[in-house]
Amino acid sequence: MCSMRTKEAIGIAGFTLMTPDSLRNVTIVVVEDDDDTRMYLGIFLGKLGAKVVVAENAFRGLEAVKAYRPNLVVSDITMPGRDGFGLLRDIRALRPDAAGSIPVIAMTALVTQADRVRIFNAGFHAWVPKPSTPDKLVNAIETILSG
């Protein structure tokens, strides 16, 4: 579960999580082509206190990164048009002061050991499998934000 807790708890999709202080006032861009998953992540992370910007593809995700300069990005890998690897390359091509160095989490159904190696070798900061429990994503975000 989450390492930093307040007394407030939320329930979503059958899980109850304590609201982590580390997500309050954090801006997160979620890039996900599946409408239901994108909506769920937006609502879930928003309930945890994050300011969430959702994008349905890598192109819109890059626009959101440029516009909002988030604290981190959660991105699917397999998306039509441009995948999460392409999005990560585009983000890294930005100047560091223009959000080029923000952490990016891969949240993906690519779950083999070879997939994980490829994801980390590409430069993603964390890997969260889909489907997953909400606490796995929160733990990955907290770990990255805590340094």
Characterization of this structure:
The structure is a single chain. By secondary structure, the protein is α/β, with parallel strands linked by helices. The protein has one domain (9-145): Response regulator (Rossmann fold). It has 5 helices and 7 strands, in the order βββαβαβαβαβα. The protein has helices spanning 35-47, 58-68, 84-92, 113-122, 134-145, and strands at 9-12, 15-18, 27-31, 51-55, 72-75, 104-108, 126-129. The strands form 2 sheets. The chain has a 5-stranded parallel β-sheet, sandwiched between helices. Helix 2 packs parallel to helix 3 (84-92). The longest helix is centred in the first third of the chain and has 13 residues, at 35-47. It is globular and about 35 Å long. The two termini are 18 Å apart. 35% of the residues are buried. Residues 1-7 have low confidence and may be disordered.
Structure summarized in a few sentences:
By secondary structure, the protein is α/β, with parallel strands linked by helices.
